[in-house]
Amino acid sequence: MRIVWIGAGNVATHLSMALAQAGHETLQVFSRTIDSASILAERLGCMATDRAEEIVPNADVYILSIKDDAIDDLIEQALPRCEDALFVHTAGSVPMNVFQPYVRHFGVLYPMQTFSRTKPVDFKEIPVFLEASDEDAMKRLRELATSCTEKIYELSSDRRKQLHLAAVFACNFVNGCYAMAEDLLKAQGLPFEIMLPLIDETARKVHSLSPLMAQTGPAARGDVEVMKHQIALLEDLPEMQELYKTMSRCIYRLKQEKDIK
Amino acid sequence: MRIVWIGAGNVATHLSMALAQAGHETLQVFSRTIDSASILAERLGCMATDRAEEIVPNADVYILSIKDDAIDDLIEQALPRCEDALFVHTAGSVPMNVFQPYVRHFGVLYPMQTFSRTKPVDFKEIPVFLEASDEDAMKRLRELATSCTEKIYELSSDRRKQLHLAAVFACNFVNGCYAMAEDLLKAQGLPFEIMLPLIDETARKVHSLSPLMAQTGPAARGDVEVMKHQIALLEDLPEMQELYKTMSRCIYRLKQEKDIK
Prior knowledge:
Two copies of one chain form a homodimer. Chain A has an eight-stranded mixed sheet, with helices on one face. Chain A is built from ten helices and eight strands. The first copy, chain A, is α/β, with parallel strands linked by helices and about 260 residues long. Chain A folds into two domains: about 150 residues, NAD(P)-binding Rossmann-like Domain (Rossmann fold, 3-Layer(aba) Sandwich), CATH 3.40.50.720; about 100 residues, ProC-like, C-terminal domain (N-(1-d-carboxylethyl)-l-norvaline Dehydrogenase, domain 2, Orthogonal Bundle). In chain A, about 50% of the residues lie in helices and about 15% in strands. At the A-B interface, helix 5, helix 6, helix 7, helix 8 and helix 9 of A face helix 5, helix 6, helix 7, helix 8 and helix 9 of B.
């Protein structure tokens, strides 16, 4: 299929490369900043533009991979009104029907993964969640998805929203915890690397145990003395102190509920 | 060395097995509940007891691996007062000098890992942090640690406390995020397994990028619309909603500070 990319961020970069490798042709990359459009276009061997009116009208698929709150405006103002093309966005939290008033065939292809531009990923391992406006759109979306991953699920907008929220906890918030640990270690002159075996085992554990079964630490044990003490250690970091308290309450409650069951 | 274990929990189980495999002899396992003492003692092929007065006085090392807030009482009331033996605890947050008033040679061997009884771990990969009352104690502690791991560090009680706090963030809080994600998925009838590629990549990423560089998601992007929306989705889960807000504030602040630098 001939693809036009709207957006040149992390998701666009990784997904466009995976689709190009699978043999799809990229016609053009559009981005509000010509620099990022050009960088990605060069990697894909296609044209770049930062002018919406220059978006070519002859693609089979237009894939929007931009900040969630920019999608609405972009669809209304910049998208070519092609009858036969398929219009797709890649956002977890944006409902499919943002396309409804403007185009005929549309859908969502949400790859649930964390992408950083400089870190290559194996796309085949990434679960992709699809939703489409009609059978024809779903057929084309499936074809696109199948060419780059083996893990394909269909999911409605409502359920995708919940899935995206769960992913924020399991990825963004997890990484936030890593970042705070790094902060604490730095203050002691300790390298973040010493945390890696613990981080790896924490992730590995939930492959064979449910997270609730795997939960350890002061909050899970209800070890009030240690918690008090650690809260005191965070006195100069009020936001992290607040987080410590809230997180410990959440963990304690989850454990209690499980024990009651 | 001849070892007596005080405690039969997760840390005691894994560390005692690793030391037994390295050729050390276990004389006895003491625990307040005879059942858990017996289970571990059977695996180690030694005696079990739940009576403090029965703890044998002829060991080379007594290793305390019990709840942090039980250590003080146990040392005062139950530990044999052997002049030459080495007394060790394995707790991240408890200072070494809890032993000071009672025994002569003492120290700390803190293995920074998350242990669940049913999940085997490769002890060689686990970083172990040592502290000792005197040179002789450190020599024996090193000998013990060297026999089961390659990653040995010396660390004072104060710095170990901070390290333990960082580990609570990087492990216990991370697992708490997994558990909350599981809760959200369950409510949608989605299996936790679909999260595993994302969880693995999130952990893998911080091997090559600093957590701050690796941070993605609505809070890192300052995507207010998505955050508002996700906060609304958590209306019926007030503790998780609170956590969402606090965590997003922490992540946003960390990102801002980085960008200022």
